[in-house]
# Entry
Amino acid sequence: GVVLASWDPHTRPIITEYAGRVRFENVEEGSTVAKQIDEVTGLSTLVVIDPKRSTTGKGGRPLVRLLDEAGNEIRLAGTETPISVTFQTGCIITVEDGMHVGVGDVLARIPQESSKTRDITGGLPRVAELFEARVPKDAGMLAEVTGTASFGKETKGKQRLVITDTDGVANEFLIPKDKHVLVHDGQVVNQGEMIVDGPADPHDILRLLGIEALARYVTDEVQDVYRLQGVKINDKHIEVIVRQMLRRVLIVDAGDTTFIPNEQVERAELLKENERVEAEGKRPATFQYVLLGITKASLSTDSFISAASFQETTRVLTEAAIMGKRDELRGLKENVIVGRLIPAGTGLAYHVLRRKQRLGLDIAGGAGLQELESDAEAQEGV
# Structure
């Protein structure tokens, strides 16, 4: 009959990782905190408010420091940085000055809006948001560099977070005061680690953590929506979509290739061009991945027949006519539209071989296999 755990869906707790005696700093009633009395229970609580004057105390940031039995500040292991837990605007302080707390005790609670209906209809907009690569509303913030976090002087309505990297270079971030900062003074953060609470921006994940972390994030988030309803979907279906979202790259340095900097091109096309210049002993192009939503990815395909059949038909065809584009009919859609067999399935290699024979190519020995392999690679854009 003993309760093992309890969960409050309306608030998010701020928990201490160390034991000690609580000492308040900058907790001044009427300036940084306000006393609220519960009408039902009659109990009073302290709620953190936006300070009226930024000059109050040390920028008016209410925080808690932990003291040991001798009254000395407890410091982070292996450092001289004292432990401090900062309270954001709007959180409810649940401890009192001088109170003893243990590891895992709740220092304060942050009220949060109750989540919307978590059924499949409530979840599908989330799936659309992920596949369209939209920047989420009230997105969280990821650390740009690896280093030690500290807080600088505040500005009106913003708090200043400074991350000092291993070379001693300070990177400053201005964060709105109503946002919950997930790091504390003296904490070491890694590049790509969440430092401000909120949904992650997939573009930031790709830029800071790389392509694998992004694929894992999108797959897990989409699966969460369907898993909630007991719907089982194999990861490979979502991964195929993510691969199409990452099919284009941005040229950073063109090297000796035919591309120009900041141009968006198909990844397969770039790799083919890089192979050509490397074979000639020249400098290949460097690139970074670009995340496109599925609508934009479909419209940016090399095949104008496929793009025109999807959306913005007039614009796509006009652009293709002006640029004199040529459709190689490599994908499935364009082949179906013009009434040909799709370039897929067990008979594909046979038909490719027959076509090369008709064109009079040398297919003797390894040459034929090499041609087939390069043709199969071209199908990767399907």
Observations:
- The longest strand covers residues 158-165.
- Residues 344-382 form one domain.
